[in-house]
């Protein structure tokens, strides 16, 4: 598969993954663009991988986690958005609950990534562990902590039905 074919086939999926983990459309586009740029630089190596999409997805996730460690990541987008300048939400089909979406944003970056990869990308613990460079037991404990936080938020925000 050539790089252009890969971008056509999987580019929007990378943007959706970036949006789901970051909660910001512009940041999602930046994450996807950065992942694709890094993949392009070593496309011969990426193309020869067993699963090139897994390879690029790992680049995106690592870039997001790296971004959250930087001080500039703490900037928060304003709650007031001009309705004429908004872009349609590409994750409408993924995240259908505003309460759940806000609860996900309260999780740590790693917890959010693990839960998104597990429940929205439907990856198993072993694959998530490979993506993050951690042990599968760490994936399970991180997911457990993230779900416990969501349950606490759910109790206070009444999103029981939407999490099931």
UniProtKB/TrEMBL annotation:
Chain ranges of the RNA polymerase sigma factor 70 region 4 type domain: 98-150
Keyword Protease: no
Keyword Hydrolase set for record: no
Residues forming coiled coils: none
Gene Ontology biological process terms, A to Z: DNA-templated transcription initiation
SUPFAM superfamilies: Sigma2 domain of RNA polymerase sigma factors, Sigma3 and sigma4 domains of RNA polymerase sigma factors
Record GO terms (molecular function): DNA binding; sigma factor activity
Residue ranges annotated for the RNA polymerase sigma-70 region domain, each copy included: 11-72
Keywords: DNA-binding, Sigma factor, Transcription, Transcription regulation
Family of this protein: Belongs to the sigma-70 factor family. ECF subfamily.
Name listed for the protein in its UniProt record: SigE family RNA polymerase sigma factor
């Amino acid at each position: 598969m050539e790089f252009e074919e890969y971008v056509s086939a999987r580019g929007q999926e990378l943007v959706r993954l970036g949006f789901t983990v970051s909660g910001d459309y512009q940041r999602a586009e930046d994450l996807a663009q950065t992942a694709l740029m890094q993949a392009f630089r070593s496309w011969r190596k990426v193309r020869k991988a067993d699963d090139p999409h897994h390879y690029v997805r790992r680049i995106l996730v690592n870039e997001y986690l790296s971004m959250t460690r930087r001080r500039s990541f703490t900037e928060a987008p304003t709650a007031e958005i001009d309705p004429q300048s908004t872009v349609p939400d590409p994750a409408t089909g993924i995240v259908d609950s505003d309460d759940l979406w806000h609860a996900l944003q309260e999780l740590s970056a790693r917890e959010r990534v693990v839960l998104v990869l597990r429940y929205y990308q439907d990856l198993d613990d072993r694959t998530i562990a490979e993506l993050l460079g951690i042990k599968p037991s760490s994936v399970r404990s991180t997911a457990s902590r993230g779900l416990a936080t969501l349950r606490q938020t759910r109790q206070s925000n009444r999103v029981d039905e939407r999490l099931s």
